[in-house]
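input
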Amino acid sequence: GKAKIGSTLRGIGPTYMDKTGRNGLRVGDILTPDFKAKYQKLKEKHLQIIGMHNFEFDIEDTAAHYQLYFLIRHTDAYPFSNIWLSINTQMPGDKKGVESKVEIPLADKNGKWLGRGTGEIYEQLMPLSGTNGYSKFTKKGKYKITFQQIMRENPLPEILQVGLRVEKQKN
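output
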């Protein structure tokens, strides 16, 4: 149609993601006894892409410094040069978290994508840590961080995956 997108002009970014991740469905799967379960699992995965993303991790060493990163994968057809996020951080034992809003640049001022690219897929790690370049966690236990995109368009097109990386820094 007239609304073709991406470098191949076929809008195959999400399909490519499923193929390379080996988590898609094939026509022959319709005949298998577990088709409905496979379909439901894939459907839930794609719905998660457009919603809130919750990440939980355990902290045992409160004296250590940690580096937190936001990971995003998108196609070259993503129509914006940035993404705005609401980030909610919930400490162990807390009912509510602390919310912050942050802009993550995905392209430079000339429109060149930041991060690494392969074909029409780009991946970027963006540090989220505090003013000293690291984060400290004052309580032992399970932390929960939730990302929610707060752009004007929802769902965001051409976003393939988001994630959180937590790295303990060596002293």
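quick obs: The two ends are 56 Å apart (CA to CA).
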